[in-house]
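Hey, I'm writing a tutorial for new members on how sequence and structure tokens pair up, and I'd like a real worked example in the thread rather than a made-up one. If someone can provide the structure for the chain below, I'll link this post from the tutorial.
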Amino acid sequence: MSFERTGGGQPSRTLALLWGEPSVPRKGPSRSITTTQIIDASLSIADESGLGAVTMRAVAERVGVSTMSVYTYVPGKPELLDLTVDALYLRMARMPWGDETWRDRVIAVAESNRALLMAHPWMTEIAALSRPPLGPGVMAKYEHELSAFDDAGLDDVEVDAALTFLLGFVQSHCRSAHDAERATTDTAMTDAQWWDANQAILARALDPAVYPRAARIGAAAGNAQGAAWSAQHAWEFGLERVLDGLAVLIAR
């Protein structure tokens, strides 16, 4: 799988676009569409066909203008990617926190990010930079998610690291879930069907005398989960371990 990176455009131009400031000198007739329409077209194409299908030409065809016209709104694909990602972040629901514990707030942050990445699989193909484009969506998301750690007793550096740790787990999990889903789609077989089809050779290869732990534990996990790997079980187990680790830090 190839990854695309945010922040690949010219920084000052990208920031101007993200915050609605004019950045592309333009001459000619008045514009017939809006930047929001271009972003929405980019988003719909990515959702339908994947990130690789998002091109300036494809976006132009979706909104009904020439490819050159799109360049008068957005300088290129890197800036378009930044605008699309930021728009998704800006549209995330962010309800004010009530009297929840820090653990409940952090679970809510994890679940909202998981929902976003599962609804938009191409987002797991984006490798964020250490200098992400700080648009209104990125900033609103960051501010809200940092507030989940209010009153947890961590210093500022620890809060930032804790959030990064949490989101890294979510990103990794969702990427694995999408990979598993693609494997099922590509082979046109569920995990159970794949194991049934290969049961004879696997029974000969996975000799309990040679691989006692792998045979015993693998069988136990497969029976418990109904598959070699369960996205839901992996999510619940992994998130609890992340929370337990943060609890140790907070208690300290």
